């Protein structure tokens, strides 16, 4: 089956480089739409990998381990994209002097 295999180091490096490029683009333009799109893309990839996991043949243990590790990496990218979205959204709201409901990442830093 066709999947984006994040257990392959080349694919993981490419995804990380693309993530960092989108992060730099979003920070320079101060637009939260870029990390928002990135978040949606990683969520779609996560859903596709979850469906592939549910449809996988239980006798193919190597495939199951690979897709499980890929789903774990998907979750990390979703978390990073979400934090990036909140951060850039806070920057954008300060620039445009918009009032936000939850003040961006304040809830996250208070818990840490």
Topology:
Blueprint: H1 9-29, H2 33-55, H3 61-96, H4 106-111
Q: What is the C-alpha radius of gyration, as a whole number of Å?
A: 17 Å
Determine the number of helices (DSSP H or I, runs of at least 4 residues): 4
**Number of DSSP strands?**
0
Structural class label: mainly alpha
**β-strand amount:** under 5%
Q: Level of helix content? A: over 70%
Mean pLDDT: 86
Please provide a written account of the structure.
The chain is an all-alpha fold and 112 residues long. It has four helices and no strands. Helix 1 runs antiparallel to helix 2, helix 1 runs parallel beside helix 3 and helix 2 packs antiparallel against helix 3.
Core attributes:
77% helix, single chain, elongated, 4 helices, mainly alpha, 112 residues, 0% strand
Brief sketch in words of this structure:
The protein has 4 helices and no strands. It has helices at residues 9-29, 33-55, 61-96, 106-111. α1 (9-29) packs antiparallel against α2, α1 runs parallel beside α3 (61-96) and α2 (33-55) runs antiparallel to α3 (61-96).
